[in-house]
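User: Please predict the structure of the protein below. I'd like the answer in structure-token form so I can feed it into my own downstream comparison script.

Assistant: Understood. Taking the following sequence of 800 residues as input:
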Amino acid sequence: MKIVSFNHNKLEELPLKLTVSFEKMFLLFNKYASEEFKNHPYHASAHLMVAEIEKYPELIEGFSDFSLLEKYKDQIDLLLEPLFPEPLLLNEIKAATIPFSFISFKFTTRFENILKNAGDNYEFTISNFDDDLMYIHACTMILGIVYNYHIDLKKPFFFDIPNEKSGILMNYRAAFNGDFMDIIATENAPKITEEDYKLLLDNFDNIDIWKEKFPPNSYIFKGFGIMNLFDVTTDATLSKISNDLLRGGDDLILDLEGHLRGFFNIKDLKIGYSVFDGDTKNLHLARVRESVSLILPEEQEASSSCNGFFCDNIIESVFKNSNTIAISDVEKYGRLTNYNHFYKQLKANNVGSIILLPIKASEGADLAILEIASPRPYELNSINQSKLTNLLPVLRSAVERKSKEHLNILEATIQEHYTSIHPSVKWRFSKAAEAHQRALLNKEENIELEEIVFKDVYPLFGQSDIKGSSIARNIAIKDDLITQLSLAINVLNEACKFEKLPIYDELIFRIKEYLNRVKKGLNAGDEIGILDFLKQDIYPIFNHIKKINNPLSKLVDVYINRLDKDLKVVYEKRKEYENSVTLLNDKLANFIDTKQDEAQAMYPHYFERYKTDGVEYNMYIGKSLVENRDYNDIYLYNLRLWQLQLMCEMENVVYNLKDKMEHQLEIASLVLVHSNPLAIRFRMDEKQFDVDGAYNIRYEIIKKRIDKSHIKGTNERITVPGKIAIIYSQEKDAIEYMKYIKYLQSKKYLLATVEKLDIEDLQGITGLKALRVAVNYKNPSQEKITMNDLMNVIKSENLN
């Protein structure tokens, strides 16, 4: 007989003193051994069993020393044989057990195989019970057996047992047969009254009260139990509820109500729900967004506040702490709360007991309250409230999904009519979308979307452009074409050695003409013309050459293998160039995005970034862009200083990439300063922000043309590698930025010399100037500047 003491923390105390006894089995054998059953087929064997068991009186009288199980294992194995019939050993998952001791013995073969397949490291533990709950469970068993107070606990024991062979974690529900045990009250056991019983119903999670009514070792457990395990990996009821919650739909509440009626065994159980958004820790800000409620009157559902309706305990427990509450007796609740508004609403809906289950998917998310009500008191209480524990994860998922659906509706409105929105201004679009949805729900006429305009914002523009990108790209194309044409000539030259065909010589001549033309320089259409020539005139000849002999076939394969699989051209130098551009762009974009998190923490502002041949970005800052936050020009000055520091750091990012780029690239950086505030308007047709107003369009024109402009009276570009150009039009801007430059020079970000330059007149734009300063690369003494440093230097300059 197998005896297992499972690896579980031994319970410190129980209301039961455990005594192992097989008296009831002995009495059963004694019955069939009596003269009354002398003609029964079991009579003779029962007579022998009685004689055998009487040799070991401890098995009948009982023992608390569990080590005796080993001593009497052969006798116990024989004695329990009728409960473990051989035909069922491979079917049933069963063992004899001492309840609450975690000691089991006499296993069926199937049970032994399950434990064997679980692996050597598996610990046979109960997945949904702690020590306090185990104590309370023992108390409820005493209430039912000794006092005939049958409590609807029905919270089953579950075991999660892995199967190493299949790799599946199996779930089993345990059923305990108590036919072979007795519970006897000792003289130390307080008698349980009806008032005690009601007190316990309202204090399921108060272990002190349970221990007061059922002191440790105040009852004697005598006998043994039979534990049967049932595979409930796909439990039907919970699965249906889960599926309904995840599926949603118009009939969800009715379906859920039907399942919960069976779950609680209350045929007229009713449910309701309310969804609150806003800050439920401050109920004056909370709003009932959706409700089919048993507890809220219609006027309350439309209200923006729940203060004064619920008692303080419900507000604290349910709304603020998201704790489940069971009111087992509504009349008692009414007396305790001086018959408040919540009590009156419960009475109006014929509610005798109710469970309020708050469900919050995450911190800051919507709060849903599920209301489960019975017309009779005590049918719903703090004990059967605990049965909902296993449903909470899927309930949270359903609430989260419902909240996301609502947000998706708002998001869809934004996406359809606006675009992907930067987080700093999303609040404004959400307001517009909410207003649009309310108008649709109210079936208003002539509904128009609200225009999004932010007035009096200051723009900041920066650009890190790859210098000479067009020339570098053309050189890469030329090198690839030269390689491809040279490979083709090599194939034809070898073919001439095996077949003296004039057509080979003619094709070699034409290829060399293309090759000479490419070496001199590419013209528009040259690449397409060469590829068409190869496809139409050369490749058919290559198909013939492959059939001449194996060496020529391999040579054609060498040509083909040098071609890009998708583009069917040599794409080596271009790939090196594009890989370098991609690497540079990704590094710059990731760097600026990471730094943006720091900048947004200083003060929220609108930011948009674009990848071109390099990176460029727009920033806007101002009071109208933020909600419920004060603005001061110090944040503008700080952002300008931060931007200049950022440009220095981006230059160093590219400098440190040189060894990693297959194609050596450099960037030229500029910052455009605009002193006057402007307005930006969201363009519905283009799904993006643009500056608003004819005067402000000048700013956009400068942005598009400035990086190609020259120093006045020269052919030198204003933007050059290794230097940052700061473009401005007013002298006060130069004074401001000189302070930033001196600060960054002191921190070893910039070199000493500063150029003051005039910029050539652009079409419709005159009077632009520039400060140009060289970047200090890879200086080990360069000091790290923190966000606090930036704020402090701005304050010390007192730019106001």
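That's the full token string. The CA atoms of residues 747 and 783 lie 5 Å apart.
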